[in-house]
Task: inverse folding
């Protein structure tokens, strides 16, 4: 039996938190005298009422959740929060609910795909709400990736299981303590990013918005030109903090608590930094040699765009599809990469590629020594068969979802490039795709409504690592 009352109580807590965050854009609307005051008042009142009803229904019951409850709660939370968070957009100048839900799901999942234009003249309250959605989604996914996904053994995440991933009664205080420390580090890095952006020439409002969407690797901007509207110094700041958002935040906590630089000894971190450095330098050399750029400009443009795509931030700086065939192919594959587990980014994640290489190395050894016993390790942990099965299942489902989503988009009348890269960018939570329609210079506003709903589902699947949602559709999930 599902524990519906505890689930309602926890959903009520999330909705009440969302209500509190709605007061921030409401304050901006009041301060600037914008017409969105009514939209945020109605949305916060309705969300708060529903939150109170959910908490009232679940109050007084023991909050003991089993694995099935956790799977259901994870999916329901992101879906229901997105439903309520879309209300201010719906009440703002008559945006239809399809566009509102798409924009909200893109924000909550830190994808960064948008259907809105005219951002330079848009109300401050709407801009800050978009940024807040990504900021909330970023910290929400970090906690889920550290505490929930390893517990559920999703996509090989058991490698990162800690005491905070054990959802027993004794572990709940440790989980709460872990979440608190992660939240403090997240706020600290956001403040540092905002100060750096202001130093680089942004106004305080622009710096606040971009600090939230940079660290969350979301990519929403206050300008239709995205980061191209700001200084070269801002581009370097963005590159640095996008990379920080792609690192495992829990390692920052451990680094501070143990007063050591252990974070830099992690295999994921070294692999991630080596990967983005190598690709950035390679593309910078390509731009310098073939596009008449200075070495510094070539490195700035290459590193910003590479880090933006690999960390699935999706900021626009320049139309890299105009860099030639090599750049187009490179960025298509970079969309799949992702950065580190326990970060705010999406994608397949670096650790899965590293494990795949380790498995391949083990298989090659087995070919030369058929009777030998080889056990590859990752971060000093043995890669068990359970982890391998989970990882292979994740990758196959990941690719299957992209194929199915691509077919659905083609059936709506979209061209193959838009359909395929749209599916990839949704499932990997990157943001912009390739082509004239949804490329770095475009947006998703002209897509059919069916395509927008399909992409929104793809964003959710990608953010929740596919298996978390897929298990809900297995008949055996609902039998007991």
Result:
């Amino acid at each position: 039996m599902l524990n519906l009352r505890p689930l309602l109580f926890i959903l009520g807590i999330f909705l009440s938190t969302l209500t509190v965050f709605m007061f921030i854009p409401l304050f901006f609307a009041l301060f600037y005298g914008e017409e969105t005051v009514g939209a945020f008042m109605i949305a916060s009142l309705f969300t708060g009422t529903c939150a109170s009803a959910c908490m009232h229904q679940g109050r007084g019951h023991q909050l003991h959740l089993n694995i099935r409850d956790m799977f259901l709660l994870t999916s329901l939370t992101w879906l229901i929060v997105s439903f309520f968070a879309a209300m201010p957009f719906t009440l703002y100048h008559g945006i239809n609910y399809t566009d509102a839900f798409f924009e909200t799901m893109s924000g909550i999942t830190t994808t960064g795909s948008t259907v809105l234009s005219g951002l330079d003249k848009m109300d401050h309250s709407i801009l800050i709400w978009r940024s807040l959605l990504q900021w909330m989604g970023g910290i929400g996914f970090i906690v889920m990736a550290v505490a929930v996904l390893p517990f559920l053994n999703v996509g090989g995440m058991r490698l990162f299981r800690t005491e905070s991933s054990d959802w027993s009664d004794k572990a709940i205080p440790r989980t709460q303590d872990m979440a608190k420390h992660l939240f403090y580090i997240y706020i600290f890095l956001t403040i540092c990013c905002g100060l750096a952006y202001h130093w680089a020439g942004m106004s305080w409002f622009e710096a606040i918005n971009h600090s939230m969407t940079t660290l969350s690797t979301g990519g929403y901007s206050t300008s239709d030109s995205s980061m191209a509207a700001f200084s070269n110094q801002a581009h370097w700041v963005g590159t640095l903090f996008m990379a920080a958002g792609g690192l495992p935040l829990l390692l920052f906590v451990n680094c501070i608590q143990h007063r050591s630089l252990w974070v830099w000894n992690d295999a994921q971190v070294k692999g991630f930094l080596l990967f983005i450095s190598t690709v950035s330098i390679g593309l910078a050399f390509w731009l310098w040699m073939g596009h008449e750029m200075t070495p510094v400009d070539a490195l700035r443009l290459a590193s910003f765009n590479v880090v933006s795509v690999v960390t699935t931030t999706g900021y626009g700086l320049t139309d890299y599809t105009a860099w030639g065939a090599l750049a187009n192919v490179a960025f298509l594959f970079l969309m799949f990469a992702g950065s580190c587990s326990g970060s705010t980014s999406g994608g397949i994640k670096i650790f899965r590629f590293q494990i795949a290489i380790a498995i391949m190395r083990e298989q090659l050894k087995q070919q030369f020594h058929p009777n030998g016993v080889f056990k590859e390790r990752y971060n000093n942990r043995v890669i068990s068969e359970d982890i391998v099965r989970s990882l292979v299942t994740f990758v196959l489902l990941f690719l299957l979802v992209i194929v199915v989503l691509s077919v659905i988009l083609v059936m709506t009348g979209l061209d193959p490039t838009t359909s395929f890269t749209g599916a990839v960018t949704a499932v990997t939570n990157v943001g912009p795709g390739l082509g004239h329609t949804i490329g770095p210079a475009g947006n998703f506003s002209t897509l059919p409504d069916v395509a927008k709903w399909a992409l929104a589902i793809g964003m959710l699947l990608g953010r929740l690592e596919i298996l978390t949602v897929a298990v809900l559709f297995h008949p055996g999930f609902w039998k007991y």
About this structure: The radius of gyration is 22 Å. The mean pLDDT is 85.
